[in-house]
Amino acid sequence: MNWFAPIPLSIKLPLLAAAMMVLVGTVASQQVLRSLAQVQDARIQELARMHVEGLSVALGPLVLRHDIWEVYDTLDRAAQGGEGRRMVLTAVADERGRVLAATDPRRVPIDSDIAALSGDAVALDGLTVDGASPVLSLLAPLSYQGRAVGQIATELDVSDLLTERRKALLYLIMGNAIAIGLLSVAGFLAIRKMLNPVTSLARQMTETHGKPRSIPASEIPPGDGELAQLARTYNAMVDAVAAKTEAERRLAERERFVALGRLSSSLAHEINNPLGGLLNATDTIRSYPDRPEVVRQSADLLDRGLRHLRDVTRATLDQNRVDPEIRVLGPDDFEDIKLLIQPEVSRLALDLSWSVDPAAVTASGIPAGPVRQIALNLLLNACAAAGKEGRVGLIACAMDGGLTLRITNTGAAMPRAALDRLLGDGPLTPGGGVGLRLVRELARKMAGTIGHANENGATRITVSLPAPMEARDAQE
Asked: How far apart are CA 467 and CA 404, in angstroms?
C-alpha cells in the first residue's frame, strides 16, 4: 500500500468513499438478485405443484385402467393451457415406471423406461432456477386416493426467468455505476471544499518563516465544527508560542511561588500516601472494639503514622527548626509501611516479598521519618509498575555500617522521565509526580546514594544510607 500514501487526502477520501459505495452496491445487488431468485423459485415450484396435482386428479383413474389414449388426450389438452406452454415435455408412467403416454411420443415412446428421461430430474421441493440450464427436469409421484399409482416426468422452460434475471443484473450494474460515478464526483468536490481549512493550516505551518502566523478569521469555517475547532486550536497554539517569551521573562520573578507550589505538592503527596492505611486502622478499631489487642495494635499504628505525618510536615516545612524531635528508625516502622501498602497490594493481587533485618535496622541509628518516606514512595511506585498480579519486594539489611534498602518489582521498566526524577538533579519536566524527586532529595540530604538496575524483566532500586556519626561512635 506504499503507492497509496503519497496520494493527497482530498483524493484518498473520495476513492475510499467510492470503494465503500462499490462494496455496498455489490452487497445490495446480491441481495436483490437473491430475492429475485427466491421469488422465481417459489413461482416455478408453485406452478409445477399445480401442474402435478392437476394431472394427478385427472389421470389417476386413467392410469389405473392403463387407458393410454385418454392419458395422452388429457396431457395434450393440459399442454394447450396458458402456463402449460412452459411445460416443454410431460410423460406419465405407471407404478412400474413404464411410460403410458407423453406429449412428445417420438422422444418418449410408449412402454419405454421413464428413468431414461428423468436422469437429471429433481423432486418438487428441489426445483430451482439456478441458471445452469434453461430447461428444468422434474420427477414427481402420481397419487390417486392417497396412494402412488404412477410417475410424472416434466421438463419446464425457464429461459424467460433467466432472461429476467440477466436484465435485473444489467440494470443493477448500470445503476450502481452511474450512482457511484455521480456520488464520487460530488464527494470529491464536497471533500475538497471541506478540506480547505486543513489546506490553509498546512500552508501556514509549512510556509511560515520565523514567527508563526495565525489563520485569518475569514478562512476559519463558520460554526463550531471539528475543522473550525482545529483552526482555533492552531491560533491558540500560535498565541501560546507568542506568550512563551513573555512567560520565560517573568519566570525568574515567579520562582519563589513555583518553589512554594512544589513544597505544597510534596507535602500533600507525602501526607496522602499513608492516609489509606491510617483510615484502615480506624475502621479496624470500629469493627473490633471488643478485642483489646487489635485496638492496641491499631492505636500504635495510628500513633506511629501520625508521628510520621508530623515528621513529614516538619521535615518539609521547617528544615532548619532548632532542636527538632527526631525518632530513630526501628523494625516497627517497616511493619507500619507494610500495613500502609497492604490495601494497594490486595487491590492489585500482588505477590509481596518482605525481608527486614531487625538488628541492622535498630543499629543503623537513622531517623525514621525520611526512611519511611523513601520506602513508602518507592514501594507505591513499585506496586503501580508491577500491575495486576505482579511481584513486589523489599529487603532492608546492613551494609558498611549503614542501612541498604532494595525495592524490586516486575512489570515495565521505568520510563526515562521517571529515571531523571530519581537519579538526576535537572529541572522537572511537566507532568508526573513529585515522589521520586523527593526520594532523591531525602537520600542526598542523608549522604545516601541511589542505584537502578533492570534485569530479567525486574526493576531494582537500591538506596544506601550511611549511619549518622553518633550511631557510629556508639557502635565503636
From this structure: 10
For 145, the grid coordinates are 386416493
Gap between the Cα atoms of 354 and 393, Å rounded: 6
Confidence band, pLDDT 50/70/90 cuts, at residue 252: very low
Q: Number of helices and strands (H, E) in the chain?
A: 13, 9
DSSP, residue by residue, 285-341: HHH-TT-HHHHHHHHHHHHHHHHHHHHHHHHHH-TT-SS---PBP-HHHHHHHHHHH
AA identity, residue 428 = L
Stretch(es) of the chain classified as CATH 3.30.565.10? 255-475
Question: What span, in angstroms and rounded, lies between the C-alpha atoms of 313 and 44?
Answer: 92
Average pLDDT of the chain is: 78
Q: Tell me where in the chain the CATH 3.30.450.20 domain(s) lie.
A: 2-166
pLDDT value at residue 321 = 40
Are 386 and 407 spatial neighbours (Cβ–Cβ below 8 Å)?
no
Q: Which CATH number fits domain 2-166: 3.30.1490.20, 3.30.450.20, 3.30.450.40, 3.10.450.50?
A: 3.30.450.20
Fold adopted by 255-475 = Heat Shock Protein 90 (3.30.565)
How distant, in Å, are the alpha carbons of 49, 87, 295 from that of 112? 25, 20, 107
Whether 161 and 40 have beta carbons less than 8 Å apart is answered as yes
Alpha carbons 49 and 60: distance in angstroms, whole number: 16
* Distance from the first to the final alpha carbon of the chain: 76
pLDDT-based confidence at 324, cuts 50/70/90? very low
Please give the biggest Cα pair distance in the chain: 136
Name the packing angle between helices 255-287 and 331-348 (round to 10°).
90
Question: Which range is most confident: 110-119, 208-217, 234-243, 344-353?
Answer: 344-353
pLDDT score recorded for residue 440? 87
Q: Tell me: pLDDT of 37 over 60.
A: yes
Instruction: pLDDT band for 81, please (50, 70, 90 cuts).
Output: low
